[in-house]
Amino acid sequence: MKLYYAPDTCSLSPHIVLREQGIEFELVKVDNRRKLTADGRDFLTINPKGYVAALELDDGKILTEGPAILQYLADLRPESGLAPRADSWERVRLQEWLNFITSEIHAGLAPLFNNMLPEEAKSIFREKLFRRFSFLQETLSTNAYLMGASFSVADAYLFTVLGWCKFFAIELNNWPALLAYWEKISARPAVRAALRAEENV
Ligand SMILES: N[C@@H](CCC(=O)N[C@@H](CS)C(=O)NCC(=O)O)C(=O)O
Predict the structure, then answer these.
(1) Whole-angstrom Cα distance, residue 53 to residue 12?
(2) For residues 72 and 22, what is the distance between their CA atoms, to the nearest angstrom?
(3) Cα distance between residue 91 and residue 94, in whole Å
(4) Distance CA 39, CA 56 (A)
């Protein structure tokens, strides 16, 4: 299995999950600007949508879209407990979280990376994002993780996108439960190993 990734992006979440589950995989770095892989291939031939993450299975199939990749990986090792069973009510709850993260937090932070947007526009996006953070603050004041007592693929994803706050001087300590949650996840051995690997490859 190969994970196409770029440092400081959403591909960190499947990377964390691969390590949490002890799955063997190869990391392939992508230059997201030039759409080239580190081994010199045109990344658009791998993911025509032109973005990470992309997962290449051993039979050559390519899977894209973070929430789909995360659930696929979780189901490879159900015993790791990173996602509830596929036919359960709790699985729908997980999908609710994954969709919230992708559409409200990931997509909510994305405009802040855009240098063409004026500051006034960015402040509208920030305000909306902060309302979502307040909702997360409430949830995480009573829950250790998004799904309750245990870490799931949704936490790997939320941890990843919250990591971008540092690029925009967004201080997570305005939402203390969110900050404590982020710090707790950053101490997980799989998370530390993924971050180290992305720095070094
Ligand atoms: N819908 C995709 C979005 C993935 C995405 O936003 N990837 C970003 C990095 S976080 C990227 O590679 N952007 C490069 C580009 O769009 O050119 C998913 O959820 O996986």
Answers:
(1) 8
(2) 15
(3) 5
(4) 15
The answer to whether the predicted template modeling score (pTM) of the entire model surpasses 0.90 is: yes
- What values do phi and psi take at 183, rounded to 5? -65, -40
What does DSSP assign to residue 11?
T
Ligand 1, residues at Cβ distance < 6 Å: 6, 9-10, 32, 50-53, 65-66, 102
Instruction: Give residue 8 CA to ligand 1 midpoint distance, Å.
Output: 11
Q: Do the beta carbons of residue 67 and residue 53 sit within 8 Å?
A: no
C-alpha 156, offset from chain centre: 6
Closest CA to 71 of 61, 57, 84, 88: 84
Instruction: Determine phi and psi for 31, rounding to 5 degrees.
Output: -85, 105
Angle at CA of residue 25, ends 21 and 26, nearest 5°: 145
Centroid of ligand 1 to alpha carbon of 113 (angstroms): 12
Query: Which tens digit of pLDDT belongs to each residue from 65-108?
Result: 999 999 999 999 999 999 999 999 999 999 999 999 999 999 99
